[in-house]
Structures are given as structure tokens and as C-alpha cells.
Design brief:
Order of helices and strands: HHHHHHHHHHHHHHHHHH
Shape: globular
Helix content: 55-70%
Distance between the termini: 42 Å
Number of helices: 18
């Protein structure tokens, strides 16, 4: 025992990485900022007002409720992140009271009612978005064209909505969604084929690396929600999160992999092209898939704890997104798919969690 007298025995954990909830939340916020800045440059200064209104409403709501409970929780930055994600999921011309209501619902009903951060059973920002979508469907499905399109139109259909409507109206025959957009006269800036000035010109060289039609989708030069349109900037922002292991590969890979395979196998049939002809690239870049897969489905609180559970969760979200987007009446599907799978997380955790030493799972002997 003499050689152990200088050994200091403590309780676990013995290793501390140094991360805190506040640092993690702040890291996610910083990684999201380029996509939000692009949304403001693309759609105009009013988009910034939408983002500020949603963040302010989220922060004030949490401050009031936490103070009423004798607590202060704003230093973990989770309210700011929730408000930012609510704003990112808003159309750029939406009335300001709608993101305010969405943020209040997200914080007051979905987060604080269940005890605050770590206890909410679904993603608060997505819940807020779905709540206002069902409450003010007209405003939440009205889109503003990018400023550099040079059009006098105040509204424009999203690419997913336009394709869905064109297919329903049987507007011609095309081999895929990009061809259908061009054939049906969907407006385009020519970003992928010619130099552009203004905000679009910043990413025009990258857009030109893709076939015509895909460049606008990839860099975010299309109508859509403020923070979801630029797949490029969302992907770049997520690299840091992967490197720091704030998010891991299981959910995004399972989500995008499942969705991509199903689109490839079945989505082409809508265009009369048969199986194994779906346009995966279009569906990866269009809508809120990248924002959902990289930043919202990976939410630590409302996603499974184990790697196996994460894979199951990602597969489920991918399947539901495919089902809603391709065969449902709603052109998107990401928000609903994630929320539905959030409901199954406790069951997934129970089925995939480790067994305590000396015990066996129910049904085993």
C-alpha cells in the first residue's frame, strides 16, 4: 500500500473534455451564420428582421419563464439557437408576428413545459415551424424570388412546390424535376452558366461546376426559407461540427442515405421514367433537407443516445421524408418526418440501450 499513498482516488468521470452546453450551442450558432447571411443577401433586409424577431421572441420567452421559476438559463445559448432555427425555417416575406408566435410556442410549450433544455421530447424549433405552418398556411407557403432574378414578381413558387404542382397538372413530359422546371417556364437567373453580379456573384463560380439548373439549387439562388436554401453553406458549416464531434455521422448518413436510395429507386416513376431513375441530386439540394439532416435531426436532446439507435432514427426520418415529399400532398416533408421520429426516440433508446452488468433484457434468458 505504500506505493499508493500519493494516488488520488476520485469518483467518475476521470476525463473531462472541456465542452459545455453553452460552448456547443454557440458553436452550432456560428456554423449556421453563413447560411443565414446568405439568406439575407439573397432575399433582402426584411429577412434579417424575421431572424431578429424570432431570436428575440425565443430569448424573452425563456427569460420570463425561467425567472418565474427562479432560474436563469440564457447562458446556455439554447434559446438563441432555437430562435435562430425558427427564423431559418421562415419564408423571407412572412409577417413578423408569425416567427414570434413560432418562437414563443417552441420555448414555452415544447421546451419549458417539459422542464427546459434536456427534457423536451421533440425539436422545439421544428415544432414551432409546424405549428405556424398549420395555423397560417398561406403565409408559410408564400415565397419571395431572389433579388438577383431581376423580376418584378413579389412571390414565386419554391422548386419543390412548382414540381409538385406541375406534376399534378400534367404539364408536359420531362425526364426529371430539373427538366420539368425548365420545360414549364420556371424562372432562372442563369447563375450556373453566366457571371452574376450582387450576392449571387459570390458563389457563381461554384454554381458553374454543376449542370444547368443544379448550380442555383446548390448555392441557394432559389425561393425558399431564409436559412435553408444554400446547401453549400450548410454543408461547409457542418464540417466543423463533425470535426469537433458535436454531431456524428450516424444520423446524417442514415438519413440522407435512406432518402437518396428511395428517391433513386422510386421517384423517377412520377415522370414515367421507371425504377432506378430518380434525381437524387435535385432532392438533396432542394428544400430543407440539408438543414434538417445536419442541424435538426442531430439535436442531442431529441435524438437517440446510442449509435445503433441513431442509425434507426436516421433511417426512419429518411423514409418518412421520402414518403411525404414524393407521395404526399405537401411538397417538403423534412419537419414532419423529424418530429414524427422524435416521438419514437424513447422506444429506440430502450430497445438499443446497453444492459446493466449482471442483468438481461426482457424476453432473454
Amino acid at each position: 500500500m505504500e506505493e499508493l499513498k500519493h494516488v488520488r482516488i476520485t469518483t467518475s468521470p476521470h476525463l473531462h473534455e472541456g465542452s459545455t452546453t453553452g460552448r456547443i450551442m454557440l458553436s452550432v450558432i456560428v456554423c449556421l451564420l453563413p447560411a443565414g447571411a446568405w439568406g439575407v443577401l439573397t432575399f433582402g433586409i426584411y429577412s434579417l428582421y424575421v431572424l431578429l424577431a424570432s431570436v428575440a421572441a425565443a430569448v424573452l420567452t425563456e427569460l420570463v419563464i425561467a425567472r418565474a421559476l427562479g432560474r436563469f438559463t440564457l447562458n446556455d445559448w439554447s434559446a438563441v439557437l432555437t430562435g435562430l432555427l425558427v427564423g431559418y425555417n421562415m419564408p423571407p416575406s412572412v409577417p413578423l408576428y408569425i416567427p414570434v408566435v413560432a418562437s414563443v410556442f417552441a420555448i414555452a410549450v415544447v421546451k419549458m413545459t417539459f422542464g427546459g433544455l434536456g427534457r423536451n421530447w421533440m425539436n422545439p424549433a421544428l415544432a414551432g415551424r409546424v405549428f405556424v405552418t398549420f395555423s397560417w398556411t398561406g403565409f408559410m407557403t408564400t415565397w419571395k424570388p431572389p433579388l438577383n432574378w431581376g423580376t418584378d414578381a413579389t412571390t414565386a413558387a419554391s422548386v419543390l412546390g412548382f414540381v409538385k404542382s406541375a406534376l399534378a397538372d400534367a404539364q408536359g413530359v420531362a425526364r426529371g424535376p430539373v427538366e420539368l422546371l425548365a420545360q414549364a417556364g420556371y424562372p432562372t437567373s442563369g447563375l450556373g452558366t453566366a457571371g452574376q453580379g450582387g450576392a449571387a456573384g459570390l458563389l457563381a463560380p461554384i454554381a458553374r461546376l454543376f449542370p444547368p439548373g443544379y448550380g442555383d439549387l446548390f448555392v441557394g439562388n432559389v425561393p425558399g426559407c431564409i436559412g435553408e436554401v444554400s446547401a453549400l453553406l450548410l454543408i461547409l458549416g457542418s464540417i466543423y461540427l463533425f470535426v469537433k464531434k458535436i454531431i456524428t455521422w450516424e444520423i446524417p448518413v442514415a438519413y440522407l442515405g435512406t432518402f437518396g436510395v428511395l428517391v433513386w429507386v422510386f421517384a423517377g416513376r412520377s415522370f414515367g421514367a421507371g425504377f432506378f431513375s430518380g434525381d437524387v441530386l435535385f432532392h438533396f439540394f432542394a428544400g430543407g433537407l440539408m438543414l434538417g439532416a445536419l442541424y435538426m435531426a442531430t439535436d442531442m436532446v431529441s435524438s437517440p443516445l446510442t449509435r445503433k439507435g441513431m442509425l434507426i432514427f436516421g433511417i426512419g426520418v429518411g423514409f418518412l421524408t421520402f414518403l411525404i415529399r414524393i407521395y404526399g400532398s405537401y411538397p417538403e416533408g423534412v419537419s414532419l418526418a423529424i418530429i414524427i421520429m422524435n416521438m419514437f426516440v424513447p422506444m429506440i433508446n430502450r430497445a438499443t440501450g446497453p444492459v446493466k452488468f449482471g442483468l438481461v433484457k426482457e424476453g432473454q434468458s
